[in-house]
TrEMBL record:
Signal peptide segment: none
CDD domains (alphabetical): TrwB_TraG_TraD_VirD4 (cd01127)
A biological process term (GO) from this entry: cell division
Listed transmembrane segments: 29-56, 76-96
Keyword Nucleotide-binding: yes
Residue positions binding ATP: G249, R250, T251, G252, S253, G254, K255, G256
Ranges for domain FtsK: 225-414
Protein name: Hypothetical cell division FtsK/SpoIIIE protein
Length: 477
């Protein structure tokens, strides 16, 4: 046993082609009978050990069945049946009256067991073999062991023990194949605290399928924690304006809903004058016009005018930075020195698509000043963008918060969210066109991307918000 390397996985019970030459001994009958008795005893002990092991392992089945068997033997089948009917009835009442606790404490546990043994286990080894995660060693074939399945009503989390030499990244690459095989909406491979384990999270129900109505406007504005979307667990996703926000998505992906959700979260600051929004709409004002009363300035008249406006804002940044030097590390908004939010639709139209070289240089210079120095002096940028390939890379790291709505290609997701985002579960390239407003972001406290959905503000919602929270100072250009 010490001479052979053992692979900690499940070996396949294939017929062994090796032939052994067994030595022949002649045992006298007086020794053979006791030998048979010892052998029989040994098998009995082994059998009892195995029975106890399986009874303990499948306690969730053996305990109720054992109790039923005991009741039948002790009190007869009549009382055992009555007890079973009574227990089933009580479980039914629990399910009916307190479904959440029933599911959390009992229902999901049995669903997980059922899915473990009837869904995942039967297909596990063929799937692993076809995906290429099994290995051959010393003439034997080994498969990563399926250890456990948990269920929480929306997802199955399948824990497996990896084979030596494997990394969760290998499993992440195979995640779409797992999802397809086990009929899940998606699958994400998550690293486990134990080095040799990996958890596959299968999403079975889409909690973000329905359109979300606009959130109520918060009474106080905390620019570091603006409630703007909902994640898959139904929790609020908050965004920090400090450090700038980049929203990327192909046409029709719902960039507007992300932008208006942020504007709605700061609307009370606009009314109180602690927050000024300067909107830049290179599409000629089509995107932001409905809410123009919310803006201190609204620019939509071509790149020349926008370059001038951006340079003015860059000057404000530099003046504030000079004044704050040695005095304050952070900006506190007052009505004299408000937080400035610069809202830009089609960011690439201002930084990449401008044909005039000199103008492009002016725009990029002003943008770089604002993005690098604005954070500490209360000037924040929210930029929306359709095509993340175009010269955005140089700016990407200046945006602390990046939101990837539906995108066309896998490579674009990594460009927006950062290297390995797709491998860690960000699947913006797979978001359906029927799910505008859905996207991937880095969630607080988790080192992997999460899926969120932004509420939808239709034109009437935006007009109503502008009428309620806009100021008479809101000007059209
Ligand atoms: N959060 C959302 N929930 C449900 N539907 C939405 C949501 N956001 C947008 N939509 C729908 O998708 C359509 C396109 O949205 P939107 O105009 O915001 O996309 P976009 O990414 O800004 O597109 P473009 O780049 O072409 O302007 C909307 O008209 C609306 O019908």
């Amino acid at each position: 046993m010490f001479s052979k390397n053992r692979v900690p996985g499940d070996s396949h019970d294939a017929p062994n082609p090796r032939r052994w030459r067994v030595p022949m001994f002649h045992i006298p009958l007086w020794a053979y009978i006791p030998w048979l008795a010892v052998k029989g005893l040994w098998w009995l002990i082994l059998g009892l050990g195995a029975a106890l092991y399986y009874l303990a392992k499948f306690y969730w089945l053996s305990a109720p069945l054992g109790l039923l068997a005991y009741l039948t033997v002790a009190y007869g089948w009549y009382w055992a049946t009555a007890a079973a009917v009574f227990a089933t009835g009580m479980l039914g009442v629990w399910w009916w009256r307190r479904r959440d606790t029933f599911q959390r404490w009992l229902g999901w546990f049995y669903i997980a067991k059922w899915r473990h043994y009837l869904r995942y286990r039967p297909l596990w080894q063929p799937t692993i073999a076809n995906i290429g995660l099994a290995t051959s060693f010393g003439g034997e074939r080994f498969y990563p062991s399926l250890l456990n399945v948990r269920h929480d009503g929306r997802c199955d989390v399948v824990t497996a023990r990896m084979l030596p030499g494997q990394h969760p990244h290998d499993w992440a690459e195979a995640a779409p194949r797992f999802a397809h095989t086990f009929k899940a909406l998606s699958c994400t491979a998550i690293e486990s605290p134990k080095a040799d384990r990996v958890a596959l999270r299968f999403r079975l129900v889409d909690t973000l399928a329905a359109t979300i109505p606009p959130f109520p406007v918060p009474a106080t504005v905390d620019t570091r924690r603006l409630p703007v979307a909902v994640d898959e667990d139904g929790m609020l996703f908050t965004v920090s304006l400090v450090g700038h926000v980049l929203i990327a998505g192909r046409t029709g992906s719902g960039k507007g809903s992300a932008v208006w959700s942020i504007v709605s979260a700061i609307a009370n600051g606009i009314t109180s004058g602690l927050l000024h929004v300067h909107a830049f709409d290179p599409k000629g004002g089509m995107e932001f016009a409905y809410g123009q009363e919310l803006f201190r300035a609204f620019h939509y008249d071509g790149p020349h005018e926008m370059a001038g406006a951006l340079e003015d804002l860059a000057k404000v940044v530099i003046q504030r930075a000079n004044r704050y030097r040695g005095m304050a590390r952070d900006h506190t908004a007052t009505t004299d020195e408000p937080t400035i939010v610069i809202l830009i639709d089609e960011f690439a139209s201002l930084t990449a698509y401008v044909p005039d070289k000199k103008l492009k240089e002016r725009l990029n210079h002003a943008m770089a000043e604002i993005l690098t120095k604005g954070r500490a002096v209360g000037v924040h940028v929210i930029a929306a963008l359709q095509d993340p390939r175009k010269e955005i890379l140089s700016y990407r790291n200046l945006f602390a918060t990046r939101i990837a709505l539906a995108l066309n290609e896998e490579s674009e997701v990594d460009m927006v969210l950062g290297e390995n985002a797709v491998r860690n579960g960000a699947a913006s390239h797979l978001i359906s066109e029927h799910q505008p407003g859905v996207g991937y972001v880095m969630l607080d406290g988790r080192n992997r991307p999460g899926r969120v959905r932004f509420p939808y503000h239709d034109d009437n919602d935006i007009r109503a918000m502008a009428a309620t929270y806009g100021t008479t100072l809101g000007v059209a250009q």
